[in-house]
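[09:14] KT: can someone run the structure on this one? pasting the chain below
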Amino acid sequence: MPYILIADDNQDIIDILSTYASKEGFEPVIAMDGIETLLQFKKYSPDVVLLDVMMPKKDGYEVCREIRKQSDVPIILITARGEDFERIMGLDIGADDYIVKPFSPSEVMARVRAVLRRMSKSESGDAKNVLSISTLTINMEEYTLLINGNKVPLTKKEIETMWVLADNPNKVFTRDNLLDSLWGMDYFGDSRTVDSHIKRLRAKLDKVPHPEWRIKTIWGLGYKFELGEQE
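[09:31] RB: done, structure tokens below
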């Protein structure tokens, strides 16, 4: 039976999520603070993590960063605050989805199923794992991105963004296309998440010169990976 780690300092939330998770065929593992969450993660190696942001001892963002250093397990952040910058920060540090309280337990389980489907899809099939185009190399097994052999430190989601764009050179992706491709059709975010995400990604990429290609904004539509000397 797969494990689901439910980390929240509210016992009522733990109880209801545990009940629904059990009905979905999961074995719930409980933690009520950040340190306990990391201990339980190490002990059980759960298949998915529901992680409250506002927890004692270590908050959810810090816990998410620690988990991402050692695992690509799906992480869904849960918080009472839904400001754009907080949602974007959560996704940028490696969370796979973000749910704002109050929520429907059925919706949470739907998000769990969706993120597990995406994970399964990315790991299955005969899809290539390394993409080399011009001076850019992306390795999805190691989750690394190189420009002219220089490693650029990016988050998991930023590397996935580059893969989607670079694997389809000169194809225009609308913001909704990117939301669906990177966070899934079940994600309830808005297009501003994509704009902020691309802005942060560009800032990191621009630390290493790459005049042979760029992420180009197509005004009114979205973005594309464009080859050729930049104007």
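[09:33] KT: thanks! DSSP finds eight helices and twelve strands in the chain.
[09:34] RB: yep, looked fine to me
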